Amino acid sequence: MGVFCNLVLGALALHGVSASPTRLFARDTDHPFANDTNILNFALTLEHLENVFYTTGLQNFSQQDFDQAGLPSGTRGFYEQISAHEQTHVDTLTATLASLGAPAVQACTYNFGVNGNVTNFVELSDLFETVGASAYSGSAHYLNKSDLLTVAASILATEARQSTWINNAIRGANPWSTAFETPLDLNQVFTLASGVIVSCPSSNPAIPPVSLNPPLTATPATARPGQNVSLTFDASKAGNATLFAAFLSGLNATYVQLNGSQPFNVSIPQSLQGTTFLAITNSSTEHADNVTVAGPAFFNFAFGADNQQVPLKFIELIEL
Ligand SMILES: *[C@@H]1O[C@H](CO)[C@@H](O)[C@H](O)[C@H]1NC(C)=O
Ligand SMILES: *[C@@H]1O[C@H](CO)[C@@H](O)[C@H](O)[C@H]1NC(C)=O
Ligand SMILES: *[C@@H]1O[C@H](CO)[C@@H](O)[C@H](O)[C@H]1NC(C)=O
Ligand SMILES: *[C@@H]1O[C@H](CO)[C@@H](O)[C@H](O)[C@H]1NC(C)=O
Ligand SMILES: *[C@@H]1O[C@H](CO)[C@@H](O)[C@H](O)[C@H]1NC(C)=O
Ligand SMILES: *[C@@H]1O[C@H](CO)[C@@H](O)[C@H](O)[C@H]1NC(C)=O
Ligand SMILES: *[C@@H]1O[C@H](CO)[C@@H](O)[C@H](O)[C@H]1NC(C)=O
Ligand SMILES: *[C@@H]1O[C@H](CO)[C@@H](O)[C@H](O)[C@H]1NC(C)=O
Ligand SMILES: *[C@@H]1O[C@H](CO)[C@@H](O)[C@H](O)[C@H]1NC(C)=O
Ligand SMILES: *[C@@H]1O[C@H](CO)[C@@H](O)[C@H](O)[C@H]1NC(C)=O
Ligand SMILES: CC(=O)N[C@H]1CO[C@H](CO)[C@@H](O)[C@@H]1O
């Protein structure tokens, strides 16, 4: 998976590009086995990942490491607070599952690819918080009990604040993307997270609705709106269906039909800004897991107060 960090502002739709608002999700039709305990375990899987990431990251990186990398004063202290929040999220979801009489997943083993470089840690934290907010947004509609929805919404808001602090206060870019966070469906989230998961305890309860999509590789990593990316993925299960590059931004999806053969060349729509996910679908009107063929990939088209492109500080790209 590539994490791309660029931006541009634009307005005009391109030829061959259609934009449509995301459908309002209908409950349980694309994941008929999703239920409250499965979705809580799905969320807990992500919280464990974040918790281990911050706990071990703060063990690995001293105040001096943060200072020497030129990170703003107070950065490590705020990361300590985030780390405590993630532990609390783990504890709360675990206790909630226990109260429902359900087993809770345990932490897995991970390979974060940080390689002892604190700027890689910052870059990945931005990805995890952003994907976390998208995961809660996209899975909320599977929850059945309204009090669980309140817990999920409370965690979602905190993940989004953490993401804002990282992208804006540390990295000098936009604190938000559009008027809406981008909801991701279950397999889409798991596909992104799986890049760092090595293995999970065999005792973990299965999460029946969740599986992996084939990964999507988009190059060059530095492409931005108005520029082309070259897309490759395993299309062996896609049959002869016409495929689309679905750029997911807020509640909008912009579909570009793929022609010819791999690698597909696609121009990134000018109108995109901030966090954008790119999934390959076999539909030009919807983009839930039941029509996702590969991906998503993650882009961060960073912008400033004047809506113009800004570079992200400290690191532009990390490959998982
Ligand atoms: C693929 O072909 C369709 C139909 O001619 C066109 O609208 C679209 O822009 C093409 N896609 C690319 C990436 O060139
Ligand atoms: C995919 O699932 C959604 C509900 O999440 C449903 O509205 C849609 O009809 C499904 N699409 C297909 C092609 O099955
Ligand atoms: C949702 O809750 C209702 C009432 O509590 C229950 O009848 C139904 O089976 C639940 N559905 C799921 C998918 O858990
Ligand atoms: C959800 O489904 C799992 C099986 O995947 C089952 O063990 C569990 O009891 C179900 N939970 C609820 C709340 O229905
Ligand atoms: C911290 O270092 C340990 C030991 O090398 C490693 O397993 C872990 O993934 C690292 N964590 C982060 C966030 O860099
Ligand atoms: C950390 O990675 C960044 C981006 O690849 C690089 O610019 C920087 O020199 C690295 N720092 C160290 C201490 O290796
Ligand atoms: C795909 O198209 C080829 C050539 O038109 C055909 O031979 C093949 O059966 C088709 N495959 C499927 C899964 O429809
Ligand atoms: C959705 O996309 C269209 C076309 O790019 C754009 O005009 C519109 O402002 C977008 N809406 C939102 C809510 O982002
Ligand atoms: C960029 O992609 C478009 C299709 O979206 C294609 O028409 C154009 O030739 C490509 N440009 C380059 C420089 O590859
Ligand atoms: C579309 O993709 C989904 C997910 O890979 C697959 O289950 C479905 O069969 C595909 N539909 C068509 C018409 O190719
Ligand atoms: C055939 C073709 O147009 N290839 C291009 C696809 O996109 C990449 C990235 O922009 C270009 O480097 C290729 O030349």
What does this structure look like?
It is a single chain. The protein has 320 residues and is of the alpha+beta class. Helix content is 35%, strand content 19%. It has six helices and twelve strands. It has helices at residues 36-60, 63-68, 75-99, 118-139, 146-170, 186-193; strands spanning 2-5, 17-21, 109-110, 197-199, 216-219, 228-233, 244-249, 252-257, 264-267, 274-281, 292-301, 317-319. It has a seven-stranded mixed sheet with strand order 2-8-7-10-11-1-12, covered by helices on one side. A hairpin with a 2-residue loop joins strand 7 and strand 8. Helix 4 runs antiparallel to helix 5 (146-170) and helix 4 packs antiparallel against helix 6. The model is unreliable at 1-27 (pLDDT under 50). The structure holds 2-acetamido-2-deoxy-beta-D-glucopyranose (11 copies).
Indicate the topology.
Elements: E1 2-5, E2 17-21, H1 36-60, H2 63-68, H3 75-99, E3 109-110, H4 118-139, H5 146-170, H6 186-193, E4 197-199, E5 216-219, E6 228-233, E7 244-249, E8 252-257, E9 264-267, E10 274-281, E11 292-301, E12 317-319
Parallel strand pairs: 1-11
Antiparallel strand pairs: 1-12, 2-8, 3-4, 5-6, 6-9, 7-8, 7-10, 10-11
The protein binds 2-acetamido-2-deoxy-beta-D-glucopyranose (11 copies).
One 2-acetamido-2-deoxy-beta-D-glucopyranose binds near residues 117, 119 and 315.
